[in-house]
Design brief:
- The chain starts with a strand and ends with a helix.
- It is globular.
- It is an alpha+beta fold.
- The protein is built from 7 helices and 12 strands.
- The protein folds into 2 domains: 75 residues, no CATH class; 154 residues, Phosphoenolpyruvate Carboxykinase, domain 3, CATH 3.90.228.20.
- 37% of the residues are buried.
- The strands form 2 sheets. Strands 4, 5, 6, 7, 8, 9, 10, 11 and 12 form a 9-stranded mixed beta sheet that branches. The chain has a 3-stranded mixed beta sheet with strand order 1-2-3, with no helix packed on it.
- A hairpin with a 2-residue loop joins strand 1 and strand 2.
Length: 233
């Protein structure tokens, strides 16, 4: 089957339900399109992942597919960022940070307060892809346990590094301050060549997209602060 993910034509054949079902919205209309690359997911790949991280084969195939996809796109101008990505009025806004920081919670607040105006691009592993020098945030099928994602791409307007706090505050940070935090929220490539490509993409993204440290509580005021700050840049 041919899937269209981040405007790449990707060929793979899911054998288990999780990967098959979550890939449906990315199914390419033109199944005769030449793939940009193929993902070969073997029994050996699945069993090796299960041996290292015990889980069932259905989940293992899904995880392995995401890793293989990432290692293919890294040399094609794209990378995963562990984050919750939202789109409002055709502009992309990303919330990243360590597990437990509240990314999904804050994204849920955006869905509540913006309603039909907001699109959930991806709630776990959106991809950042650079088109003609412009960073975009893209939906992917690899979206964590809740499968919240959309097959869209929108220009990336801002990135917020999220943390929980009783009070709301936001400040822009330098690229030097943002880089190590963001590097912790992506997968490490499997070669020096791919790591070099990742650093180059981070340099380009950070030269064009503002990054913020955002401390917040669970409130409408937190949504308004993050949105109004990021959209104004």
């Amino acid at each position: 089957m041919i899937y269209s993910i981040c405007d790449f034509f990707v060929e793979y054949e899911p054998r288990y339900s999780r990967l098959r079902d979550r890939s449906l919205k990315y199914l390419a209309e033109d199944q005769s399109a030449a793939p940009d690359f193929s993902l070969e997911i073997t029994d050996e790949d699945i069993n090796a992942h299960i041996a290292k991280y015990p889980m069932d084969a259905d989940l293992a195939e899904y995880v392995v597919a995401g890793i293989k996809f990432y290692n293919e796109v890294i040399l094609r101008g794209a990378f995963f960022l562990h984050s919750a990505a939202m789109a409002v009025d055709g502009q992309g806004f990303v919330f990243t940070g360590p597990c437990g920081a509240g990314k999904s919670t804050h994204a849920g607040l955006w869905r509540k307060f913006f309603g039909d105006k907001v699109i959930s691009v991806n709630d776990d592993k959106p991809a950042v892809r650079i088109f003609d020098g412009v960073p975009y945030i893209c939906g992917t099928p690899f979206s964590g346990k809740f499968d919240i994602n959309s097959n869209v791409r929108v220009p990336l307007r801002g990135i917020s590094i999220l943390s929980q706090s009783p009070d709301n505050s936001i400040r822009q940070v330098s690229a030097a301050e943002a880089m190590p935090v963001l590097m912790e929220q992506t997968l490490r490539p499997d070669s020096i060549e791919k790591m070099s490509a990742l650093f180059s993409m981070f340099d380009e993204v950070l030269s064009k997209v503002p990054v913020y440290k955002f401390s917040c509580n669970i409130s409408k005021e937190a949504v308004e602060l993050s949105y109004n700050t990021m959209k104004s840049q």
